[in-house]
């Protein structure tokens, strides 16, 4: 699956702008992106960023995150920059807002604990690729307002 690089970068800026720049910690950002990607796949059977995730000791981690954030730094894309919201579909914006509302106040360790307790992480060998199809074993309630 191809990575949606532009959408990926804008999603990071969107999360960052809505959380007052509080996510430059890689662990928190990685976990928020995990929820964005896996919740979106579970609900719509479509990829959001298109990144792959590995089951690392501190929970799911997006394989391309370091590369994407390095590119953003080179391109001068700072956390304070406004995201290009027009790149997102209505469903994508709703998902980003849902993740921010549900998980935005948690710190990296709390998010690590939540993601490590989920079926996709539990069902994957250590350091293995977490398959998106495992999202269907989570049973997320999308009707619930966070």
Radius of gyration, whole Å: 14 Å
- Number of folding domains? 1
Largest sheet, in brief, is: 3 strands, antiparallel
Q: Categorize the overall geometry.
A: globular
Q: Treating each run of at least 4 consecutive H or I residues as one helix, how many helices?
A: 6
Mean pLDDT: 92
Helix content: 40-55%
Instruction: Give the class from helix and strand content and strand pairing.
Output: mainly alpha
Number of strands: 3
Approximately what portion of the residues adopt beta-strand conformation?
5-15%
Report how far the terminal alpha carbons are from each other: 30 Å
**Weakly predicted, low-confidence segments:** none
- What is the string of helix and strand elements? HHEEHHHHE
Q: How do the strands of the widest beta sheet line up side by side?
A: 2-1-3
Sequence-ordered SSE layout with sheet pairings:
Layout: H1 5-18, H2 26-44, E1 53-56, E2 59-62, H3 65-74, H4 90-103, H5 108-116, H6 119-122, E3 129-130
Antiparallel strand pairs: 1-2, 1-3
Helix pairs in contact: 2-4, 2-5
Describe this structure in words.
This protein is mostly helical. The protein has one domain. 48% of the residues lie in helices and 7% in strands. Strands 2-1-3 form a three-stranded antiparallel β-sheet. The longest helix has 19 residues. The model has no long low-confidence stretch (mean pLDDT 92).
Keywords:
mainly alpha, globular, single chain, 146 residues, 6 helices, 48% helix
Question: What's this, in brief?
Answer:
By secondary structure, the protein is mainly α. Helix content is 48%, strand content 7%. It is globular, with a radius of gyration of 14 Å.
